[in-house]
Amino acid sequence: MSQSQSQTLPSNNSRCNNNPSRSKSEPNPPSASARECSVCGYALYLNVARCTNRDCPKHGRKDGPLAITADRLIRDFEPPKLFHGRRWKKWVFDAERLCLVFEGRPTVRGEGANQYTGFFGSYEIDLELIRQSSQLLDWIFQVGHHRLPGLLDAFYSIFNPQRNLCSGGANKIIANPTKFLKERTATVGDSPLKDAA
């Protein structure tokens, strides 16, 4: 079976679709609405509450100083961490299964202490299988043009490819993709929503 056949469609043997191993004390993450743009659904820069989507009207600068210091620029526009349910157009990040899901809808799976909310849709990318730039590029061409909107933004937010996969044109390899992804994902404990609840 080819790599594309085993990864693109939901199946029982794909790691992306299996019930994730979860700690029994780990609750489902809270709603991400306070971290999402009300217009397009993209994540917000948390320090300035502006949309990360450059095409959204809430991305643009409102009234404020014409010039800001480099320190403030870095602080205000620090890329938001990944979170369960983060969206890029029709693509959704499933932090439970470390997958990117096209047209993902929240679905409750499991029972009791093993219950979790996953995102399931018509097409999935198992992010743990992307270790180098060639694998990322393969997915870009594999998904098809009708699924491409939002995918490049998602890959940029998740992998920051020029930094982590192909700096200066040189191929880099992510040694431990699971650890890499979990380090970039917000946990329930450091969620900005804990104060809002």
Question: What is the fold's blueprint, element by element?
Answer:
Elements: H1 3-8, E1 44-45, E2 50-51, H2 70-76, E3 87-88, E4 91-94, E5 99-102, E6 105-109, E7 116-120, E8 123-126, H3 133-142, H4 151-159, H5 161-164, H6 177-183
Antiparallel strand pairs: 1-2, 3-4, 4-5, 5-8, 6-7
What does this protein look like?
This protein has one domain. 22% of the residues lie in helices and 14% in strands. It contains 6 helices and 8 strands; from the N terminus they run αββαββββββαααα. The termini are far apart. The N terminus and C terminus are likely disordered.
Which labels suit this protein?
disordered C terminus; alpha+beta; 6 helices; 197 residues; two-stranded antiparallel ribbon; 14% strand; disordered N terminus; 8 strands
Level of helix content?
A: 10-25%
Number of domains: 1
Distance between the termini: 47 Å
Mean of residue pLDDT?
A: 79
Kindly report the oligomeric state of this protein. Answer: single chain
Strand order of the largest sheet: 3-4-5-8
Low-confidence region ranges: 1-14, 18-32, 189-197
Number of strands: 8
Brief account:
By secondary structure, the chain is of the alpha+beta class.
